[in-house]
Write a structure and sequence with these properties.
single chain; mainly alpha; 18 helices; Growth Hormone, Chain: A; 477 residues
């Protein structure tokens, strides 16, 4: 009921030029205002009639539900893959690192494709829907692949290709559905709902395996996972609408970082006039124009900062395997380790999103990678239950401080017509970096053991922070 009502409300605002703060009315805060929050209304609170200052728009909530169901589905499979590949198919750490890299990096190129196509044809919802649908179908593909390693690699690649297609258009829709000053909170809410799914996914996988009575019988997990993913696709189709109403126009014609000093450019009447023009009359989105985004110093600094940090990020699967082996935990309990990370992430996502809007998104991102570095240090300590819990909590906190906050940091630096493309550029760099990190970690583990591999990655993350911190501190957001 809430979703359908808020969706109609959002649609009404989109088609009503006479609404307060609409196309034909000046912003209550004057040109270049904060996106329509009336005087006296705090950030994230609805103005008269539920204006764009509201964070809990129907679109943000609906996209959160889509991600919740999709993450239940994805994490069901992710939770059992290390067991299936390492203990049933007997892969070496190097082989597992290769497949884990494919799992992470297969999204890279398609993130750019998905973002560019979504912007060029103004079909963010459609492109995201194709990505969600492809991932849903691929869950059944694991049944067809059986024990064939090449086929498993192909299914993993297609599954992650779906994620690559959907991520940038989805994040662009979130960014365009929230006021500029509420980006951190909107992404925090979305990531909290997304992580609620990540929390339920491993529990669901554990329950399904226990219910079918066979620790090695994962077919039921794949079937249930696919059905849950289909629910997510249906929510997207029924309740998410293409942004472009008051919120989208205000974000487009409001403030953007226009220089390395973080200056803001006010579009004013010219921006509002452009927003009133039909989509076909607006500036066309070309691939060359998308590449021009990298020339903007604030955006380029975010991109250059995220690349080395991603190159030094150990994948969660490797983290769980190391903790399981160092603490001598029975392999059957391995699917439950992601629950600790997801629980910490779930609790931290919204508060850290609010904190990012208040003190600066760059500072929160830096804190997130410091938490990751501390997590590496804990893994090297003598094993014990306290070390296990603290390492999982720190990993969850690092997600809460970086995952959605990076998009909230980069989004307002980009114009509306290239929002998905620009976010895709950042996410592609992150995906390629983490793919290389998985491959490198697998080689290091095989050559010198897991402890040596962690030490090398921790040192690399320390160097990456030295490079990234000065860049991020110059980005106001």
């Amino acid at each position: 009921m809430y979703l359908s009502e808020t969706r109609r409300a959002d649609a009404g605002k989109e088609t009503s030029p006479d609404a307060p703060g609409g196309d034909g009315a000046p912003s209550p805060d004057g040109p270049g205002g904060d996106g329509g929050t009336p005087p006296g209304a705090g950030p994230g609170r609805a103005g008269p009639g539920g204006g764009p200052g509201r964070v809990l728009t129907g679109n943000v909530v609906a996209l959160g539900l889509v991600s919740l169901f999709t993450d239940v589905s994805s994490e069901m499979v992710t939770a059992i893959l290390p067991l299936y590949l390492i203990y049933q198919l007997s892969l070496s750490p190097m082989q597992f690192g290769f497949l884990d890299g494919v799992y992470t990096g297969a999204t890279a190129v398609l993130r750019l494709v998905g973002g560019h196509v979504a912007d060029r044809f103004h079909r963010r919802k459609l492109v995201a829907g194709v990505g969600y649908g492809l991932s849903a179908v691929c869950k059944i593909g694991y049944l067809v692949a059986g024990r064939s390693l090449p086929l498993i690699g192909l299914v993993i690649g297609l599954d992650r290709a779906g994620k690559g297609l959907r991520t940038a258009p989805r994040d662009a829709m979130i960014s365009l559905s929230a006021a500029p000053e509420a980006q951190g909170r909107a992404f925090g809410l979305h990531r909290a709902m997304d992580t609620a799914g990540a929390l339920m996914g491993p529990l669901a996988a554990f329950g399904v395996v226990a219910a079918v009575g066979g620790a090695n019988d994962y077919d039921a997990v794949f079937v249930v996972s696919s059905l849950v993913a289909v629910i997510g696709v249906l929510v997207l189709v029924l309740f998410v609408h293409e942004p472009g109403g008051v919120v989208g126009r205000r974000v487009a014609s409001g403030t953007y970082a226009a220089s390395d000093r973080g200056r803001t450019a006010v579009a004013g009447d010219r921006g509002r006039g452009a927003a009133r023009r039909p989509a076909r009359e607006r500036q066309k989105v070309s691939l060359r124009g998308a590449l021009d985004l990298v020339r903007e110093r604030p955006f380029r600094r975010v991109l250059l900062a995220m690349l080395p940090l991603s190159l030094a990020t150990v994948s969660d699967s490797f983290l769980y395997l190391m903790l399981q082996r160092r603490l001598d935990i029975d392999a059957g309990w391995l699917p439950l380790l992601p629950v600790g990370v997801a629980a910490a992430y779930l609790l931290a996502a919204v508060p850290l999103g609010r904190l990012a809007d208040r003190v600066g998104r760059s500072a929160v991102v830096i804190g997130g990678y410091l938490a990751l570095l501390a997590c590496y240090g804990l893994v090297l300590l003598p094993p014990g239950p306290a070390v296990l819990v603290a390492a999982l909590v720190l990993r969850g906190l690092s997600y809460g401080a970086t995952d959605g906050v990076v998009s909230a940091l980069a989004g307002p630096l980009l114009p509306e017509e290239r929002r998905a493309t620009g976010l895709a550029v950042v996410q592609t760099g992150q995906a390629l970096g983490m793919m290389a990190a998985s491959w490198a970690f697998g080689v290091l583990w095989t050559a010198g053991g897991s402890e040596m591999a962690v030490k090398v990655m921790a040192a690399g993350l320390g160097v990456a922070l030295v490079v990234a911190v000065p860049l991020l501190r110059k980005v106001r957001g």
